[in-house]
User: What shape does this take?
Amino acid sequence: MNFLEARIAKDGIVKEGNVLKVDSFLNHQMDIALLDQMAAEFHQRFSNKPITKVLTIEASGIAIACSVARCFGVPMVFAKKTKSINLDGDMYVAEVDSFTHKKKNTVIVSKKFLSPDDHVLIIDDFLANGCALQGLISIVESAEATVEGCGIAIEKGFQDGGWRIRNLGYHVESLAIIESMDASTGAITFREQEA
Amino acid sequence: MNFLEARIAKDGIVKEGNVLKVDSFLNHQMDIALLDQMAAEFHQRFSNKPITKVLTIEASGIAIACSVARCFGVPMVFAKKTKSINLDGDMYVAEVDSFTHKKKNTVIVSKKFLSPDDHVLIIDDFLANGCALQGLISIVESAEATVEGCGIAIEKGFQDGGWRIRNLGYHVESLAIIESMDASTGAITFREQEA
Assistant: This one.
């Protein structure tokens, strides 16, 4: 078990409906040392890529993405979920479904912050059905920028998002892939990954 | 001018309706080195307080709050704006108005993450009418924890939130206080603060 799998096994809580609560360390209360350790791991896994920008989606991706951007010495951009009066001008837009909130979100990134010269590392906390990630990929490609890869904290391997996105040729690195989980016992099984 | 005032003067854009856009470095694209410099400044200003937790509100407060939490070596908790199916159990709740989005938000923090032993530093990117900050203060006090202070990146000094909250006895430190701004000329005047 790597450090993140160990932390999920220790502090993650399995709920009915394939919900994994990691709110004590990853998406409500944040363990900063853990974020930095995850960021160092993403930095190592994508160290051969000429990353110019880290892209994520609000809200819980922001903390991890900031740490990753610090490792690469590049800016972080977060996609916004609703149209704000502060966000005028031209924007890249994608529609995404949210598993957690059971609704459609419009996701936007200002055109000022992505250009064809950009080599983008996309970061998010969860990958399940892949809709959020596909929305971010579509935004990067609308900008004619390059998707260098996707770094995910926790992938739900029993949903097909990771399979679909890898199948499209994208380099997806997930620090922990959950093969199965059982709300009645709290047991979580991780997919074996190469060290 | 301090480093943040200088950056606002250089890259901030004044829009009609008292809107200041800082989306190129603070709340859409994030300059990580600037965040870390702001965090170091907050750490210095609150260094005599026994901070155990940093609290902010999603989404744009998260990045600054993470950097501040790293400086203090404590966890960061961010308040959530909508009720998520992943957030069950008991929660502290506050109602806040949003200036930017012209709507009311329900803000929640899980009771697990604030206790009477906590000494909380509240961090946010903007302070204008003070509704968000008052919501966070009310959540900390519902938990019978101690509000040790509020660290704000940019305060709109021509709105009364800062005045009201200082008047209630809270220690508010704003790195930049805007006295006035003019959308027709783009001019921004900062309040003189002690160095």
User: Anything to note?
Assistant: The mean pLDDT of chain A is 93.
